[in-house]
Design a protein that fits this description.
By secondary structure, this protein is α+β, with helices and mostly antiparallel strands. It has one domain: Heat Shock Protein 90, CATH 3.30.565. Helix content is 27%, strand content 28%. The two termini are 29 Å apart. GO terms for molecular function: ATP binding; protein serine/threonine kinase activity.
Length: 139
């Protein structure tokens, strides 16, 4: 019987997966399950899952994706260069920023976590929709 997911050790064969999720609070877990299923043998899986969680939660909290009827799209790709994950949202007034929050602030560290765990991160878009992307080198 063939495995449901291609052998993840074969990073020479590029793969891209994309899925849309409703913009509800319970979907952060669904995104982590989606990624964990696809990247089961990935040596940096824990970092990928934490970063994806941060990107999804940010989309739900800071963009229209978290409003009633909102959606977000998650893309995961892997190739010889490593892993890339992105979350596309429906936009909002705030610009993604990995600045240092006030010492006692209860939030504002998500993108700092993304920057610390990934090889690099970036964003594109505007108030109508943004995509945040993080990359991971795979040993």
């Amino acid at each position: 019987m063939l495995p449901a997911v291609p052998d993840q050790a074969d990073y020479e064969t590029p793969m891209i997966w994309r899925r849309e999720f409703p913009g509800t609070d319970d979907q952060a877990r669904a995104v982590r399950v989606f990624a964990a299923t696809l990247l089961v043998t990935c040596p940096v899986l824990d970092d990928v899952l934490l970063v994806l969680d941060e990107l999804v939660v940010n989309a739900l909290l800071h963009t229209r994706s978290g409003l009633d009827g909102g959606r977000l799209t998650v893309e995961i790709s892997r190739d010889a260069g490593g892993i890339a994950v992105s979350v596309a949202d429906e936009g909002g007034p705030e610009v993604p920023c990995a600045g240092v929050p006030a010492v006692l602030a209860e939030s504002g560290r998500g993108l700092l976590t993304v920057a610390a765990l990934s090889t690099g991160w970036s964003w594109t878009g505007d108030e109508r929709g943004r995509t945040l992307r993080a990359t991971f080198a795979v040993p």
